[in-house]
């Protein structure tokens, strides 16, 4: 793909994004992904998908309180976002390989151990 084709593809995706969700939708999507990745890094495999969504929505569960995760900056960062939307973003990051589902005593969310840069 040459530069011209890449530019056309980028412009097309930008226009589609503007029509569907507007600029706010594009920025909010990135914000959700960043919050999910950051909270997964800080939780370090202690939470499941559902508990991760609860953490981001500021719901205090036993797992969140026991591990002191109600004191991290991501706690409640997505309080206005639906649980299903947060779970969709978590699933997207899992599919892209940016998050792993580990199995300790339950399926938990982890950042994969890699060397170098991670491009999600």
Summarize the structure.
The protein has 120 residues and is mainly α.
Count up the domains: 1
Strand fraction equals 5-15%
By CATH reckoning, the class would read Mainly Alpha
Classify the fold: give the CATH topology: Arc Repressor Mutant, subunit A
Order of helices and strands: HHHHHEE
User: Would you tell me the structural class of the helices and strands?
Assistant: mainly alpha
* Average residue-wise pLDDT: 81
The helix tally amounts to 5
Strand order of the largest sheet: 1-2
CATH architecture name: Orthogonal Bundle
Shape, principal axes of CA atoms: globular
Termini separation: 20 Å
CATH superfamily: Winged helix-like DNA-binding domain superfamily/Winged helix DNA-binding domain
CA gyration radius, whole angstroms: 16 Å
Residue share in helix: 55-70%
Residue runs with pLDDT of under 50 for 5 or more positions: none
- The count of strands amounts to 2
What characterizes the major β-sheet? Answer: 2 strands, antiparallel
Structure explained in plain terms:
- Helices cover 57% and strands 7% of the residues.
- It is mainly alpha-helical.
- The chain has one domain (3-110): Winged helix-like DNA-binding domain superfamily/Winged helix DNA-binding domain (Arc Repressor Mutant, subunit A, Orthogonal Bundle), CATH 1.10.10.
- A two-stranded antiparallel ribbon has the order 1-2.
- Strand 1 (100-103) and strand 2 (107-110) form a beta hairpin.
- The chain starts with a helix and ends in a 10-residue tail after the last strand.
């Amino acid at each position: 793909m040459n530069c011209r084709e890449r530019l056309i593809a980028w412009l097309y995706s930008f226009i589609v994004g503007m029509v569907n969700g507007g600029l706010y939708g594009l920025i909010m999507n990135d914000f959700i992904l960043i919050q999910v990745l950051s909270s997964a890094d800080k939780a370090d495999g202690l939470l499941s998908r559902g508990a991760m969504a609860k953490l981001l929505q500021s719901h205090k569960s036993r797992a969140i309180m026991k591990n002191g995760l109600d004191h991290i900056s991501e706690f409640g960062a997505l309080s206005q976002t639906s649980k299903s939307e947060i779970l969709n973003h978590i699933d997207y990051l899992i599919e892209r390989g940016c998050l792993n589902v580990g199995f300790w005593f339950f399926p938990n969310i982890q950042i994969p151990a890699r060397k170098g840069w991670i491009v999600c």
